[in-house]
Amino acid sequence: MTACVTHIPCDQVTYLGQGLVRPECVLATRKGDIYASHGEGGITHITPTDDVTIYFANNSEKPADFLPNGFSLRPDGSFLVANLGQSGGVYVLERDGSLQLLINEIDGLALPATNFANLDREGRIWISVSTTAIDREKSFNKSIADGFIALVDHSGARIVADGIGFTNENKVDPSGHWLYVHETMGRSLLRFPIRANGDLGPRETVTDYGSGVYPDGFEFDSEGGVWCTSVLSNRIIRLDPDGVQQIIIDAGNPDLVERAELAYRTNTFSRSLINEGLHSPLGNCASLCFGGNDLKTVYIGSLHLDKIACFRSPVAGTPPSHWLF
Predict the structure, then answer these.
(1) Where are the alpha helices (DSSP H) in 223-270?
(2) pTM of the model
(3) How many CA atoms lie within 13 A of 310 on its CB side?
(4) 3-state helix vs strand vs coil in the chain, percent to 5
(5) For the structural domain made of 10-312, what CATH number should be given?
(6) Where along the chain do its domains lie?
(7) In this predicted model, what pLDDT tens digit does every residue of 204-231 receive, in sequence order?
(8) 42: helix, coil or strand?
(9) Which of 22, 105, 231, 283 could tie 302 with a disulfide, CB 3.0–4.6 Å?
């Protein structure tokens, strides 16, 4: 039986942890551990007993502009971290603070600010680069699509998809056959068939989002739905298997959303507009994951909160690739 997913009021949102800095990406495991990116150069670990530890990068490999963004948990407990600083690249962070560069160049292109590093069940690494522009704000424009997806596997590193309107999170779907990708300024959820050699087939549009939606992170649920976060408007949206979009939480400021929509239409969208979303109870929601013993607790990563927002869902998520790590 399909569960009834209804609108969840903001007063049902609770919080976990304290003293976090820019916990943009959040992950959960079966053991009850919660991990989030830490904007001062590391990864935050919230244990099942609510203790908070931060694994700071602390060796000479750390670039001066190291800004952890989207990351993955590896089987040995280390982290695969995308550096959103201008020096870009993907790094491996150990829990003792040692940091090693994994890759900073693909197909002769130096990786710029890097959005997400996704380790899948097959051990492949899918990398999101939102834009090749040094001034990333220049790509906050619906007419620019210079983002790409790169793959690192046993055959090496290569770009496997491009022409994306500000590439954000990417994830392999539960079937293992498709790579799903959010394009924030293209305001779409895309997917690409994964070929036997890891290359991607032609893009397909799963859904186009409407007014006020700037998609960032997403996750799959056990009933074939996709749960998405929208920065600035601070919405959580579920796309059901039939393609119907439903707003689960709307914690945004209508005036800000209206001003941002005008800026989006006239190609004057700016970082300052996104930053105004910090006053929401979701603190500019940027990612989400399912956790808890039943995979029905939704944890929300954000750009501006110093803690993790969470709420209960009537639908369970699907176990992510790191669930048993």
Answers:
(1) 254-265
(2) 0.96
(3) 19
(4) 10, 40, 50
(5) 2.120.10.30
(6) 10-312
(7) 999 999 999 999 999 999 999 999 999 9
(8) strand
(9) 283
Closest CA to 114 of 95, 129, 125: 129
What are the b/e assignments for 117-129, b being 16+ CB within 10 Å?
bbbbeeebbbbbb
Tokens 């539960």 belong to which residue?
A: 174
Query: Residue 126: which of 208, 206, 182 has the closest Cα?
Result: 182
- Going by the DSSP 8-state scheme, the letter that residue 194 receives in this structure is B
What's the Cα-to-Cα distance from 296 to each of 216, 231, 289, rounded to whole Å?
21, 22, 10
Extended strands (E) in 154-296: 156-164, 167-172, 178-183, 188-193, 204-208, 215-220, 226-230, 235-239, 245-250, 285-291
Q: Angle at CA 288, nearest 5°, toward 47 and 195?
A: 115
Compute the half-sphere exposure of residue 156: CA atoms within 13 Å on the CB side of its CA.
6
Q: Which helix (H) or strand (E) covers residue 272, if one does?
A: helix 271-275
Report d(CA 245, CA 207) in Å as an integer. 9
Query: How far is residue 20 from each of residues 56, 102, 204, 206, 224, measured CA to CA in Å?
Result: 12, 26, 37, 34, 32
Bridge partners, 43 (sequence order)? 37, 55
Residue-wise pLDDT tens digits, 110-138: 999 999 999 999 999 999 999 999 889 88
